Write a sequence for this structure.
């Protein structure tokens, strides 16, 4: 998706944006600090423990001075739902992952694997919510209720089989049922129980 | 000059000496002091700056029908402290009290939100849309959309400042930075502080004090990520009857919001 109107922003940005010197030096210092390598997915999944990667998102700017209905000030980066071992996933690249709390056992990063695991997408840089709370994934072997942000596909890359049941949309592939759900950052795909026969 | 300095010194000495004397003995008459009056401390929130914000809010409250085009750049701070900036646009069409559409375009694509006083709909471009019943004012929509569905509308202040019923925090500090030309238009530039957030606003000079630019600085993170937005207003644009009612694209399917429970 092309990002339009950047050229309109450019002169205004020149006026407005002054990245404080402290932030720059902090960034450099931070890069030296946060150099833990991110574990890549193994072909044969093992119980890998993932270190918090240097390119995980730490925080985002809030988009309103007075957002309503918030408990905390940092409104655009709220942890959703089940805190603790919840992991936010936007795609498979370490840069695109957001983490709240300790990584759950068996959590894996990177790559694309299936067969008991959950799906990552190898897309590029869509790593942020831009319209609300980030989609949340509960890590673990595709347990019912977990959500991924990229459309699951069959292992050979073809689309999942779409079904309607009881007026609801279901996607079926790789032995699992998904339902597309609307999140603050676009469509997510939630693992659900099979539709009633 | 030396005389004045000596007078001030004398006043200081007299001032500091008096309390000690009072403690040491029975209360004595305080020494007469000739001193320059201390300048009154400047209030942290400059009254003129506060008045400018109020004047803008009062003007926004008179607007019933408007379009807003927002171009924003927003910081994200990675764990290693690196700052990434993402650009997005938002197009709002608003008809008070309870009609709104928003088109958000960012690196992830386009999302359209619609509110017609009866239903709130969010549609991506992938053939799915979610819809839920919703009533009440736009302020109510902004809150409920977030608390119930996780939808965070950018720059809600543009609506809250214009909503007399909305309770917004008053800044604790503020001052006028100066005047500045933004996009060729003369504005007054103010900087305010509230708990956890600093913000700057550039307000059009003249009889239509609209915000033309905002910079919101989040203080929760030491890197202080910023959200910068250029705002263009179109007042009283033409409207069509069905503009605020959601129409699904051909073949689009309805899905649920993430926070709604899955079917049993």
């Amino acid at each position: 998706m092309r990002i339009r109107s950047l050229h309109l922003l450019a002169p205004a940005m020149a006026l407005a944006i002054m990245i404080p010197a402290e932030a720059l030096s902090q960034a450099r210092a931070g890069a030296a600090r946060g150099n833990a390598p991110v574990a890549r997915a193994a072909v044969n999944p093992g119980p890998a423990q993932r270190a918090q990667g240097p390119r995980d998102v730490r925080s985002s700017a809030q988009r309103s001075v007075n957002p309503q209905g918030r408990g905390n000030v940092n409104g655009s980066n709220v942890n959703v739902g089940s805190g603790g071992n919840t992991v936010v996933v936007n795609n498979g690249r370490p840069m695109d992952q957001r983490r709240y709390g300790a990584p759950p056992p068996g959590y894996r990063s990177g790559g694309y694997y299936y067969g008991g695991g959950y799906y990552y997408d190898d897309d590029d840089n869509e790593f942020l919510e831009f319209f609300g709370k980030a989609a949340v994934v509960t890590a673990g072997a595709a347990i019912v209720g977990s959500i991924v942000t990229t459309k699951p596909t069959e292992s050979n890359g073809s689309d999942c089989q779409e079904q309607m049941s009881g007026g609801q949309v279901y996607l079926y592939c790789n032995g699992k049922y998904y339902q597309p759900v609307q999140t603050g950052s676009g469509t997510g795909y939630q693992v659900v129980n099979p539709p009633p026969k | 000059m030396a005389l004045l300095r000596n007078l001030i010194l004398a006043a200081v000495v007299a001032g500091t000496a008096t309390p000690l004397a009072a403690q040491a003995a029975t209360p004595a008459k305080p020494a007469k002091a000739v001193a320059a009056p201390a300048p009154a401390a400047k209030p942290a929130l400059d009254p003129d700056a506060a008045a400018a914000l109020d004047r803008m809010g009062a003007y926004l409250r008179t607007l019933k029908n408007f379009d807003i085009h927002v171009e924003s750049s927003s910081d994200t701070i990675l764990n290693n402290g690196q700052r990434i900036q993402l650009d997005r646009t938002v197009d709002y069409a608003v008809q008070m009290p309870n009609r709104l559409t928003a088109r958000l375009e960012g690196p992830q694509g386009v999302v359209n939100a619609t509110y017609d006083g009866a239903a709130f709909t969010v549609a991506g471009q992938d053939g799915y849309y979610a819809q839920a019943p919703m009533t009440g004012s736009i302020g109510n929509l902004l809150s409920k959309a977030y608390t119930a569905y996780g939808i965070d509308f950018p720059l809600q202040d543009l609506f809250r400042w214009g909503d007399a019923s909305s309770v917004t925090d008053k800044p604790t500090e503020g001052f006028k930075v100066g005047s500045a030309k933004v996009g060729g238009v003369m504005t007054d530039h103010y900087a305010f502080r509230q708990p956890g957030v600093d913000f700057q606003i550039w307000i059009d000079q003249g009889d239509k004090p609209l915000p033309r630019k905002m910079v919101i600085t989040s203080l929760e993170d030491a890197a202080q990520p910023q959200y910068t937005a250029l705002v263009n207003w179109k007042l009283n644009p033409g409207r069509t009857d069905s503009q605020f009612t959601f129409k699904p694209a051909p073949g689009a399917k309805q899905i649920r919001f993430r926070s709604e429970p899955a079917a049993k």
Q: What stands out?
A: The domain at 47-238 of chain B is CATH 2.50.20.10 (outer membrane lipoprotein receptor (LolB), chain A).
